[in-house]
Sequence to fold (128 residues):
Amino acid sequence: MRWLAYLWASPTTLLGALMIPVALLSGGRVRAVLGIIEVYGGAVALFLRHVVPLRGGATAMTLGHVVLGLNREALDRTRAHELVHVRQCERWGPLFIPAYLLAGAWALLRGRDPYRDNPFEREAFAKA
Ligand SMILES: [Zn+2]
Fold:
């Protein structure tokens, strides 16, 4: 039944896979780890540092079965946390990104931190 989880998460995975050629054409790298594709370095690092709307940028980011990272060490360090997000993507499928953004917006509307108080992040921090 694992293939069903991959299929259900595939719209989000495809979005992440768009970063593979971006990484490879800019000096970044791609590797397979534990059934996921890790993409790191090159323009992916610039994207995480400067485009992701977090103070100081992001160290890693999960999009389905693709995990973007600043570098290998960052991916090794954040793997347990990002694997929780991979399972969330398998559970939520194409609804993951809208649900994640809505949860962050809901936290913000309540005067909370849209990242730290996002239930998806709280689960990942609790389990990792
Ligand atoms: Zn997270």
In short: The longest strand covers residues 29-33. The chain has a mean pLDDT of 97. Residues 81, 85, 121, 124 surround zinc ion (CB under 6 Å).
